[in-house]
Amino acid sequence: MAKPAARIGAIQFALAIGILAVLTRAAELQIVETERWAREAARQRTERVVLPARRGTLYDRNGVPLAITQEFYHVGIAPNELEDIRSAFVLLVRNLGVPAASLNREFQTRKRWIYLHGPFNATQVQPLRDIRGVHLTGEFQRFYPSRDLARPIIGSLSPDRPVGGAGLEAALDSFLTGRPGEAVLLKDRAGRVYDSPNRKTRDPVAGNDVVLTLDAELQEIAERGLDDAIAQMKAEGGDVVFLDPNSGELLALASRQAASGGAPSASTFTDPFEPGSTAKLFTAAALLMRGRVQPTDAVSAENGVWLMPTTSTGVTRKIEDAHAQKGSLTLARAVQVSSNIAMAKFSLRLRPEEQFETLRDFGFGTPTGAEFPGESRGILALPDRWQPNYTRASLAMGYELGVTPVQLAAAYAAIANDGVLLTPTLVREIRDPSGKPVYQHRPEPVRRVVTPEVAAKLREFLREAAGEGGTGERAQLTNYTVLGKTGTAQRYVNGHYVKTEHTASFAAIFPADHPQLVVIVKIDNPRGNYYGGLTAAPVTRAMLQQALASRRVAIDRGLLATRDSAAPEAPRPVETPAGAPPVVVSLPYRAARDSTPPRPVPEVAGRSIREAALALHRRGFRVSLRGLGRVVNTIPAAGEVAPAGSPVVVIAQ
Amino acid sequence: MTGSRPVRHPGELRWETRLLGVVTLVLLAFGIAATYGAASLVTVKGQNVGLGFAVRQLSGAVLGGILLLWASRQDYYRWRQWAWPLLILTIVFLVIPLLPFTRSISPVLNGARRWVDLGPINFQPSELARLVVVIWCAMLASKKGAQVREFKKGVLPFLVVLGVVSLLILLEPNLSMATLVALLGGLVLFTSGARIGHFILLGGAAVLLVFHQIKDAQYRLARVLTFLNPGEATTAGGFQIYQSLVGIGSGGLFGTGFGEGQQKLGYLPYAYSDFLFSTIGEEWGFVGVLVVVSLFALFCWLGFRIARTAADPFGQYLAVGLTATIGLTAFMHMAVSLGLMPTTGLTLPFMSYGRSSQVISLLGTGILINIGRLRGKPRTPVRSQRGAAGAGK
Q1: Which stretch of A268-282, A539-553, B113-127, B246-260 has the lowest confidence by average pLDDT?
Q2: Which of A190, A212, A234 is the last residue of a domain?
Q3: B193, A3: Cβ pair inside 8 Å?
Q4: What percent of chain A is modeled with pLDDT above 70?
Q5: How many structural domains comprise chain A?
Q6: Which stretches does DSSP call E strand in A144-267?
Q7: Does the model's ipTM exceed the 0.85 cut?
Q8: CA nearest A41 in B: which residue?
Q9: What 3-state class would DSSP assign to A431?
Q10: Which residues make beta-bridge pairs with A48?
Q11: Of the candidates A212, A240, A255, which is a domain's last residue?
Q12: Chain B, 215-254: which have a CB under 8 Å from a chain A CB?
């Protein structure tokens, strides 16, 4: 019976065909199409995740952390993955500090996933790391250890994303953010992700740490001093600025604003105010620079009331002095007693362009260029919009001029710094995560505003103004000399000046020789004695006393001791009429800037006119505009070297 | 006459059975390793079951191995005597899951009742049916001899019994196993010399029946539609097949490495049983596929060699049936994994996780080895007494 053998052969043959089909198909899938399937496998099983980078820390100048990022954890528990529920339960309760009863209730509900939001810190979750079924999700959180200290300046993160939303957190975001890493994670069909360290494709790079110029101790003194002053004077608000005139570093910035319910704000940068008499010094500077006033020149003080003719047709403007003066006043004396009448009279010796130029050179009407976002440029109208007589007098008295406290501080710092305006700054140093400095602040001269001689003379004016018989004498300390100028401006409310509301201010330079601090104190609408000399000046003194009492505030006490002891004997050449050397002001005015070397013209093509003008201005060039819109080119071209103060033609379209 | 081939040397025909044993052992070992790898990331109640699966598979291998050794020394004619009792026992076991009051010993798992839990023994009656049907068919075919060419007296009795057994399995429901059992019976019948015409007729009827069954069950229809439209492979019905292809395809030539396959992360269901071949393809690559296919081919070649040289028709039919059980199951499992066939729930013999299948396969192999060992030995009248009438032709 050969038949079964044949049939077995047939079965074998069929099976052989089957085997061949299987092998062919396997070869097709695994050799021919393997790349396609591998790609598909990778697509469905892997997930790219972003590994967040730790945000850099913000320190004060002495290393006190002001904003730090810490990692926090949320804990998820999958009860059915737990090997030993009892011991896991005990560990969770003991380490996380969650109430045993509530956690027990969670377990009783037989949920598949128990979530404990926390947040828990690294120490708390450390013992839980190796428990199967306990899943940790880390998250970075921004933390401000000094709470409200300088918070409006430091700013905050966006509520929804870990990027800077306001203040320095926003301005320095690109430095602080770091570079997020990336990892490819394995996920199962349920979307659960498996740790797979070898699949990390890029490590996150932590952000840079930024050392600010702020001095936490001085900031504390400023904020506390301001709060006390506002409470004591029943004022609406106020601002305090501490600035190092030698470096342009802002040491403390305190603000309280009525608009925000007395809460801290960043108004030192954002809110211009009419400074009143504290701005008298700048018109004085313009007069001295151009030699329009000799030390012996004097004008009548008109016994406190003067009707100034403002037009040729006989329209007059009534100008009053708070402290009526008899006889005549020199410029120095006008500043000392803060005579509006004398300053108005002197201001008429300047052409509007000249007065404007000096004010603008002091930085008014342009942002200072500090790192703070949303900085106000202040208010300074162009001369062609002036009512010539009226505005000149107004500016001389500190009206029709809007300055931010920081602008005012920077301008006073220029006087303290022998006439060179520095860009105020908030950033002292930027360090990469390894601690290597990537940026260190050096004083950034914007331009020479006045000659050293004029600056010295202006400081003498301030010495008188804050000395005996001056309006600011209440700022004086027992052992050290404070230079300063008071200001009391009527507030402009609803279209007119209100005689009962004032902005009191005091601008101080400390100490008199080799100044180390410029202090601006501004009090909004103090009740009772509203004069700057009676409000802001004593507040300045109190704060300076505290700063001196503090061991940590960065005041060079060695320098204080040696210099100030010699101060009383210092000659006062400005006030001695006979032997006084003439003020060295060469005309035309531009030539006076030769002390700063020629510098390259910055690249501004593609920028807006505003940005270009700011950039050129900060480099010490004058700007001449051709056209509006985006900057196309400059003459001289970018990169060419031109002397400081020379005009740069900006061609825009 | 196959049964009367002269034997030149007692040891001459022993190499086939020995090699068969070796192939079986290699497949078993490979299977335990592959199961471990495939189940290594499967967790149940927080426990990794990979090792547990491997240990259980090993215990199944030990039990099956003992049965194999026992069966290889047990004259296969005993199975001929036990054929009817075994068939009745199998039918009883197949009925248990269908009864409404037996849920305690036959619970619903994945929408089907395929298991019978008898305290210490928990097994799938359909796996037993796979072996018993082959034994019974071989018995009856050898008894009927040339009568199988007739329809009424030859094929019909087979049809009745196969129909009943298949129907019972189908009702579990388990269409793939029912089909397999019917196919295996048909193969034995085919070997014994039944008419081709009958097969064509029956095949046509079976196709209609199966198609009807598929139309009835939504999941089966979905599987078949997926098979027919591979373009829509990512839809729910095609997910398993598609994931199987992704696994095998991404394995490439050499595979991702033992235990490194990732399709088992919830993408490929039953990576350790119904889709073990896909896991092998992923982790061992084309090389692994080639090895596994070669081992099964070798097994079948040896099995059919034994069948050709078996001492008598019963041994011959039985050997064909037992070999085909392994070969056909393996082929269908692989074909499903490769998308050559609609999805079924068949395991890979010797290798897939599942002790019922493993033990039955090993027992069958033991019987096959015994058939091989007893070749060339003249059947004593006592032993062949009952089968002599059919086998003597």
Answers
A1: B113-127
A2: A212
A3: yes
A4: 90
A5: 3
A6: 156-157, 164-166, 181-187, 193-194, 200-202, 209-212, 237-244, 249-257, 263-264
A7: no
A8: B246
A9: strand
A10: A184
A11: A212
A12: 245-253
Chain A positions touching B393 (Cβ under 8 A) are 1
Q: Provide the 8-state DSSP code for A31.
A: I
Cα(A215)–Cα(A242) distance, integer angstroms: 9
Assign A575 a pLDDT band (cuts: 50, 70, 90).
very low
Under-70 pLDDT residues of chain B:
1-13, 40-50, 109-112, 118-122, 213-238, 266, 376-393
Whether residue B146 contacts residue B393, with contact meaning beta carbons closer than 8 Å, is answered with yes
Chain B positions in Cβ-Cβ contact with residue A20 (cut-off 8 Å): none
- Orientation angle between helical segments B175-191 and B156-170, nearest 10 degrees: 160
φ, ψ dihedrals at A187, nearest 5°: -130, 150
Task: Examine the domain organization and report whether A185 and A295 are in the same domain.
Answer: no
| B86-125 exposure pattern, b = at least 16 Cβ within 10 A, e = fewer | bbeebbebbebbeeeeeeeebeeeeeebbbbeeeeeebbb
* Min distance A107 CA to chain B CA atoms (Å): 15
Q: Is the dihedral of CA A467, A468, A471, A474 positive or negative?
A: positive
Q: Are residues A108 and A229 in the same domain?
A: no
Look up residue A30 and give its two tokens.
Answer: 């695994």
Secondary element (H or E) of residue B335: helix B313-337
**B41 to chain A: nearest residue by CA?**
A188
Strands B47-48 and B43-44: antiparallel
A194 in B contact zone (CB under 8 Å): yes
Residue B24 DSSP SS3 = helix
Say which range, A412-416, A591-595, B101-105, has the weakest mean pLDDT.
Answer: A591-595
- Whole-Å CA distances, A553 to A229, A255, A335, A514, B306: 21, 20, 31, 17, 101
Residues A68 and A137 in one domain: yes
Same domain, A149 and A202: yes
Distance CA A449, CA A289 (A): 9
pLDDT at residue A241 in the model:
94
Q: How far apart are CA B29 and CA B299, in angstroms?
A: 15
B116: enclosing H helix or E strand: strand B116-118
Residue bearing tokens 């100490």: A511
Task: Sort strands A209-212 and A58-59 into parallel, antiparallel or unpaired.
Answer: parallel
Nearest CA-CA partner of B332 in B193, B181, B201, B200: B181
Asked whether residue A601 is assigned to any structural domain, the reply reads: yes
Tokens representing residue A590 in the block: 């531009």
A34/B250 CB distance under 8 A: yes
Residues A601 and A516 in one domain: no
**Distance, CA of B126 to CA of A606 (rounded, Å):** 82
- What's the rounded Cα separation, in Å, for the pair B281 and B251? 6
Same domain, A297 and A343: yes
Q: How many CB pairs under 8 A join A and B?
A: 137
Average pLDDT over residues A208-223: 91
User: What is the spatial distance between Cα A520 and Cα A540, in angstroms, rounded to a whole number?
Assistant: 8
Residues A225 and A186 in one domain: no
Q: Which of residues 350-389 of B touch A (CB under 8 A)?
A: none
Which pLDDT score is estimated for A364? Answer: 93
Dihedrals φ, ψ of B7, to 5°?
-100, 125
Where in the sequence is the domain holding A639, given as residue range(s)?
589-652
In the predicted structure, residue A414 carries a pLDDT above the cut 90? yes
Residue A314, pLDDT above cutoff 80: no
Q: Name A491's bridge partners.
A: A498
Residues A242-260 pLDDT 10s: 999 999 999 999 998 866 6
Q: Do B246 and A36 touch (CB under 8 A)?
A: no
CB contact under 8 A, A80 and B46: yes
Long-range contacts of B95-100 (CB under 8 A, 24+ apart): B95/B168, B96/B125, B97/B125, B97/B172, B98/B168, B98/B171, B98/B172
